[in-house]
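pasting for the record
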Amino acid sequence: MTTPTTLDTRSRWVAPASFAVLGALGATILAACTPTTGLDMSKPLSDGTWTAQSNADDQGSIGTITITVEGGRITATSYETTLADGTDKGAEYGKSSSGEVFNEDYYKKAQAAVASYQEYSDNLTQVGDPAKVDVITGATVAHQQFVQAAIRAIAAAQGVSPDGADDIDIPASTTPRRTATSTAPTAEPVRAVGCVDSAGPVRSGGSVGAVRSAGGSGGRGRGYFLGVCPRCGCVACCG
């Protein structure tokens, strides 16, 4: 009979312990990814149509959700997001103000976020609990805003306070702000109409795609985007 060595004995103990540690770590990560909604989903929902909004993200966009409750359960969900200027995010989101795709990568990312709205809506209708709505890769901001709005709509249907809604963190958008670049050579970048820097305000003119940085009011450096403004989408505006 062979007597087990200290190494053999240790290996037999370490393996189960390692699995236990990995299992606990996995559970912790899963819990961290699952939003805490503050809702008690055992409470009944009153039949009707309930609408609520999310907080604004870092670009001023707000999500609006509408749920239909029949027989105490969610039977339909719709969700949309509007930009800071009130424009709906739809098929035109990610295009220039003239309706052109000036940056293919930006447009794909923007449209991936838009496509997630329907999937998040269908998921909520199916599972009935915003905490069980999984995150879609590339649409994290949309997910957090969707969950936040859903909490408020469900809380309204339950007749309770949406205490957990403000605990949902709305991360900074990973979708790049819109800029346009020109393929034509530019001898000297021209400032956009209405932009003000150390050289004074510009009242007319502007070269599409020209970009430069200049000292803004108060001594702060600001980038001036000539073409599609990254902030408001207009053709000539300071960024």
